[in-house]
Write a structure and sequence with these properties.
The complex is a heterodimer of chains A (221) and B (245). Chain A is of the alpha+beta class and 221 residues long. Chain A has a four-stranded mixed β-sheet with strand order 2-1-3-4, with helices on one face. Chain B is α+β, with helices and mostly antiparallel strands and 245 residues long. In chain B, strands 2-1-3-4 form a four-stranded mixed β-sheet, covered by helices on one side. The longest helix of chain B is centred in the last third of the chain and has 34 residues. The radius of gyration of chain B is 20 Å and the shape is globular. The chains are: A alpha+beta (221), B alpha+beta (245). At the A-B interface, strand 4, helix 3 and helix 4 of A face strand 4, helix 4 and helix 5 of B.
Chain lengths: 221, 245
């Protein structure tokens, strides 16, 4: 019985990478379809008519959109190599930190890229505050998931790659090794895990991409 | 000893959609709990201990361990109490679609409604238009996902709870805003869904009186509009100062 699994992604989307990591960690075979977001395919528009974004997972012709929804779906469907703990309270704790990443960490880092002046300063401050809480959460652990990568590591994994790219683009420090030793160690450890390491988009292309995004945004302001 | 260990406490406030949804879920599952009313202008040491990151309600405490964030609490309730009604569907694909729509209602529609409530003039007109567009999207989404009907009148799930907590009080919203929120002709599926949910004894039990909710929402609207005016006044004052230099 063949299971058809397809992933719609772009070469650089950090959200799509979450889906790639989850599937790769669970050893699930899938086909990759690269989208050009300036020229979205009819298939993408059909499978994600509401948001028209990547990633989309297609499983036996049924589409699922939104990276965190997809992660929970992957976990529900392929139960080996679990990404969430078994205990309900620990699961709730994992989901808490995933949500924290989405609601606090990501917007602060994104706004540091897209804004300037006082607004950028405030966003940068907020990002640093959020990193302090992540640092606390890592006490006694090498990964957010403990000994093995879990869903929290996957959800926050974009930090391990994009932070240094954005530090270069913005000439702004986010995660100082001395201020955030545990978070820095986590980033290095996570980035080097073979399944993760093989997936990183080319760094120079990422730098170019984010410089362009910032310039375009500031030009419209 | 055992009683203490299994004790369930909900820290919340009386008129919040977020606290309400947890109450709803606990009652659907038939879980007895103690309700601790928090004063958000004077947060209790317990609340700060249980939710140090956000310092918000609701917080559920079970077996002396806290769980924060209403949607996460609902998932926890479903997973920790395995017997009885399930809040999430068994089929993992439908479950994913339910999660998708919960996220849509919470992030897109609730935010849109908040904008409508807290603004006026052109900003509000634009926000109303966007809200109506999102209702269209939800209407179609529910039609596609549940061709046999969104709610059978009996089995309350996660999606019903969220919809009820955000748009159950739509008549309150309509009264305060002076606009139609759920139009029976435009959104027949959503209209009959919310109407059926509001008729449940459980919902009636946990919903405060209409006039009370109107007062709360009106206060929130007034406060938001005054804040906006204050920002505007500060901006003007700055301009005047600059031009006089």
């Amino acid at each position: 019985m063949g299971e058809e699994v397809k992933v719609f992604r772009t070469w650089s989307s950090p959200f799509a990478l979450r889906v790639v990591w989850a599937l790769d960690l669970k050893g699930i075979k899938y086909e990759t379809i690269y989208e050009d977001l300036s020229n979205k395919s009819p298939l993408l528009l059909q499978y994600n008519p509401i948001h028209k974004k990547v990633p989309v997972l297609l499983h036996n012709s049924k589409p699922i959109a939104e990276s965190l929804v997809i992660l929970e779906y992957i976990e529900d469907t392929w139960k080996h190599r679990p990404l969430l703990p078994q205990d309900p309270h620990q699961r709730a704790n994992a989901r808490f930190w995933i949500k924290f990443g989405e609601d606090k960490v990501f917007p602060a880092v994104r706004d540091s890229l897209l804004k300037q002046g006082k607004e950028q300063e405030e966003a940068h401050e907020a990002a640093l505050e959020s990193f302090k809480l992540l640092e606390e959460e890592l006490k006694g652990k090498k990964l957010f998931g403990g000994e093995e990568i879990g869903m929290v590591d996957i959800a926050l994994g974009w930090l391990a790659n994009l932070v240094s790219v954005l530090e270069e683009v913005l000439v702004l420090k986010f995660i100082d090794e001395h201020k955030f030793p545990l978070l820095s160690a986590w980033m290095r450890l996570f980035a080097d895990i073979p399944v993760i390491k093989q997936s990183w988009p080319p760094r120079d292309k990422l730098v170019t991409k984010y410089i362009a995004i910032r310039e375009a945004r500031l030009a419209t302001n | 000893m055992e009683e203490e260990h299994n004790k369930v406490t909900l820290h919340g406030v009386l008129n919040s959609t977020f606290t309400k949804r947890v109450e709803f879920a606990l009652k659907v599952k038939g879980i007895p709990y103690e309700f601790v009313v928090e004063n958000l202008t004077n947060k209790s040491p317990l609340l700060l201990k249980y939710n140090p990151v956000h310092k918000k309600v609701p917080v559920l405490v079970h077996n002396a361990k806290p769980i924060c964030e209403s949607l996460i609490i609902l998932e926890y309730i479903d997973e920790a109490w395995k017997n009885g009604a399930k809040l999430l569907p068994k089929d993992s694909y439908i479950r994913a679609q339910v999660r998708f729509w919960i996220s849509y209602i919470q992030q897109q529609m609730f935010e849109a409604m908040t904008l409508v409530v807290s603004t006026d003039g052109e900003t509000q007109e634009k926000a109303i238009k966007e809200l109506y567009e999102k209702f269209e999207v939800l209407e179609k989404g529910m039609k596609d996902l549940f061709p046999n009907g969104t709610f059978d009148g009996k089995n309350v799930g996660f999606l019903d709870i969220i919809m009820c907590s955000v748009f159950g009080p739509y008549k309150v919203q309509e009264q305060v805003l002076g606009i139609k929120v759920i139009d029976q002709e435009r959104n027949p599926i959503i209209f009959s869904w919310v109407t059926a949910l509001n008729e449940l004894p459980l919902v009636k039990e946990i919903t405060p009186p209409h006039e009370e909710l109107v007062a709360v929402l009106q206060t929130f609207r007034n406060f938001s509009l005054n804040l906006a005016m204050l920002d505007h006044l500060i901006a003007i004052k700055v301009c005047v100062l600059c031009s006089s230099c």
